[in-house]
Each structure stands twice: as structure tokens, then as C-alpha cells.
Amino acid sequence: MSEAVTRIRVGGSAGSEPYEVLVGRQLLGELGGLIGDRVKRVAVIHPEALADTGEALRADLAEQGFEAVAIQVPNAEEAKTAEVAAYCWKALGQSGFTRTDVVVGVGGGSTTDLAGFVAATWLRGVRWIAIPTTVLAMVDAAVGGKTGINTAEGKNLVGAFHPPAGVLCDLAALDSLPAHDYVSGLAEVIKAGFIADPVILDLIESDPEAARTPAGPHTAELIERSIRVKADVVSSDLKESGLREILNYGHTLAHAIEKNERYKWRHGAAVSVGLHFAAELGRLAGRLDDATADRHRTVLESVGLPLHYRHDQWPKLLENMKVDKKSRGDLLRFIVLDGLAKPTVLEGPDPAVLLAAYGEVAE
Ligand SMILES: NC(=O)c1ccc[n+]([C@@H]2O[C@H](COP(=O)([O-])OP(=O)(O)OC[C@H]3O[C@@H](n4cnc5c(N)ncnc54)[C@H](O)[C@@H]3O)[C@@H](O)[C@H]2O)c1
Ligand SMILES: O=C(O)C(=O)C[C@@H](O)[C@H](O)[C@H](O)COP(=O)(O)O
Ligand SMILES: [Zn+2]
């Protein structure tokens, strides 16, 4: 696929403002235009690992005439806490941030989830722009307006739907990403393949080793296809009243594992185990054919993603899953497949079937 800039439109229905996701290289020149003329202040929220990037962005924006502040937050999930959100609110307050000012979140999904949440809550909502720097944030977290933080009780339990004004996916950012973080993002790419676009799976299976690096021949296509899957879904169901639940494929168990690991596991790694579990659940519930269920294991394993989790943790995981956002009262609900690219909801599965599915995942 060419290195030209691809523009993917998101939203525009049900009262939400449409915006674009740009994918390409050297996109930062687009930022000033996205921020707009009448804006006085810009806050650049970035993780420690991207201190240089955050400062370079701040300096560039200051040169363009904005009052720009950089707000450094911890790396990864440590940023998704009420304390860090409060730290950001303090920084916005101290810089006199008003309703016409703009937040920029640059980093992985943890940073964009936090930055979006800070933007959603400051003065009850200011504009924000996402500059995702991981595969996972480009294909999933930065697109669609789910923002939020974790609590000790569970993943993303506090948040808001607050779509960004634009998303800039600069593929050059992926060159500095640690290999395990690159691979972890592939779990959401593979998820998009199973729920909606099997060409994604074909591309990865054609050369799994190449899919593990940003230098692979299909990097841009894999990212763009996954963004289109997400864009299509959130454009028709921003607030998850139905269709959007399919994006949660593999996430019911994944979030339970993340909480169990006190958010030290990468989200993508947990999603990989969760996808394996969801495939086995679909198979054992009589919904999914053996070949498609097996394909989950082979494709995830081929790029080096984990499939298993500790056998003795099932009672805790079951407890954790009760606060999943898809639960209704005491009813557990899972996304499973009726076939390739045919996601559906499985409500209140037999506990014995759930346990048997976990038996396939347990190590
Ligand atoms: N809002 C959504 O719709 C949505 C969707 C999927 C995932 N998420 C959330 O995204 C988070 C996971 O995001 P992630 O996988 O991007 O990980 P991450 O944001 O936790 O980042 C992983 C690590 O990589 C560092 N990093 C980021 N970009 C880098 C780069 N270019 N070079 C070097 N280091 C870099 C980060 O500082 C961090 O240390 C989870 O909290 C998950 O819940 C949200
Ligand atoms: O955008 C969505 O909707 C998703 O479910 C995408 C997921 O990949 C993502 O991890 C999301 O943050 C999970 O949301 P949650 O509502 O289950 O916390
Ligand atoms: Zn996810």
C-alpha cells in the first residue's frame, strides 16, 4: 500500500460531529489546522516514554502562537487513575484552560484514554485531538470516543463517550515502539479480522513474522483495515446501545485478567487470551465451527501472542467478569461468533460451558 495519507471518516450520525482519522507519515503539520484559529491554549498530554515527543510538540505549537503546555503522565496503565486525571485537571486549571482550548493526547491507548477523559470532564467537555503512537491506539483506542480510567474494582469503570476532533496516526511513531508492545497491538487487529474483515487474517497468515514488525509489507493496510472496522461500527453506534458491543469480542475475560494482574499486563496480551477463550466458548456453545475456532489459536500464536492463563484463577476471573459493562444485573453476556465475521451476543451461558471453555485456556 502507498505511503500517501489515507483519510477515514468517523461519526456524523446521531448528533455526533464527524471527524477524520489520518494514516500516513509526517502528519504533524496537520495538527495546527485541526486545533483551529480561535484557540488560545493547547495542553499536550504525553507519557514519560515520549517526553521528547511531548516537548517537541509543545515547542512547535508555541511557535505557531498557541499558549502550549506539556503535561507528562506515567507510562501505560499507571496513567489511567483518578489521581493522574486530577493531576491533569490541576495543570489545566493552573494554565487557565477555557472551553475554547484544546487537549492533545499523544501516546498509546492508556494515554489517549486518559487525555480523552480529561478533555471530557474539564468544564464538562473541551475538544481533544488524538495522536496515537502504538498499533493498538491507532487501530482502536484513539478512534471512537470511548475515554476513561480504571479503578481498583475494574477496568475502564469510570469514563465518558467523548469523540476526538481528529486522529493523526503517524506510522513513523511505530519505529520506536518496543517489540512486545507492537505485537500486543496485533491482538486488536486480529479481533477486527475475526469480527468483520477476514482479509486481515489472510494478510497476517501470509507472513506472520513480517506482521510482527512495522517494516512488514502489510503494516499500513492492516492498520487501515482495522481502523475502518472500528470506524464503521462506532459511526452507527457511538454509545454502545447495540452493534458496538462486537468491538468487545474477547474483552470480557481480558478485562478480568487485567484486573487480576493489577493492570500490569498489556491490554493486547489479555485480549489475546480473551479471544482464545471467546472462540472456545463459541465452539462449546454450539455456535462456532471447529476450523474457525482453531484459527484463533493459530493466528494469535503465529505472531507470538499468549493463549493461556493460570488454571487456578477461574473463581476470581468469574467474580471480576460480573462488573463487565455488558453485564445486565446478574446476567453475564459475551460476544461470540456464529461464524467468521458473524459476531453475536451469548447471554447467560451455562456455568459448566464457561468452565469448560476456561479449561481450554488454562495452563
Ligand atoms: N478507548 C478505547 O476504545 C480503547 C480501545 C482499545 C484499548 N484501549 C486501552 O488502551 C490501553 C492500551 O494501550 P496500548 O497498548 O497502546 O499501550 P500503552 O498506552 O499502555 O503503552 C504501552 C507502553 O508503550 C509506550 N509507548 C507508547 N508509544 C510509544 C512509542 N511510539 N515508542 C516507544 N514507547 C511508546 C507507553 O508509554 C507505554 O509505556 C489500555 O488501557 C486499553 O484499555 C482503549
Ligand atoms: O471501542 C469499543 O467499544 C471497544 O470495546 C474496544 C475495546 O478494544 C476497548 O478495549 C475498550 O476500551 C473496551 O471498552 P469497555 O467498555 O469494555 O471498557
Ligand atoms: Zn481492547
From TrEMBL:
Cited Pfam families: DHQ_synthase, DHQS_C
Pathway in which the depicted protein is active: Metabolic intermediate biosynthesis; chorismate biosynthesis; chorismate from D-erythrose 4-phosphate and phosphoenolpyruvate: step 2/7
E.C. number(s) listed in UniProt: 4.2.3.4
Coiled coil: none
Cofactor field: NAD(+); Co(2+); Zn(2+)
Keywords recorded for this protein, A-Z: Amino-acid biosynthesis, Aromatic amino acid biosynthesis, Cobalt, Cytoplasm, Lyase, Metal-binding, NAD, Nucleotide-binding, Zinc
Residue ranges annotated for the 3-dehydroquinate synthase N-terminal domain, each copy included: 71-182
Main location: cytoplasm
3-dehydroquinate synthase C-terminal domain sequence ranges: 185-327
Top-level taxon in the UniProt lineage: Bacteria
Localization: Cytoplasm
Cofactor, free-text remark: Binds 1 divalent metal cation per subunit. Can use either Co(2+) or Zn(2+).
The reaction(s) this protein catalyses: 7-phospho-2-dehydro-3-deoxy-D-arabino-heptonate = 3-dehydroquinate + phosphate
Task performed by this protein: Catalyzes the conversion of 3-deoxy-D-arabino-heptulosonate 7-phosphate (DAHP) to dehydroquinate (DHQ).
HAMAP family associated with the record: DHQ_synthase
Family in the record: Belongs to the sugar phosphate cyclases superfamily. Dehydroquinate synthase family.
Stated name of the protein: 3-dehydroquinate synthase
Native source species: Streptomyces galilaeus
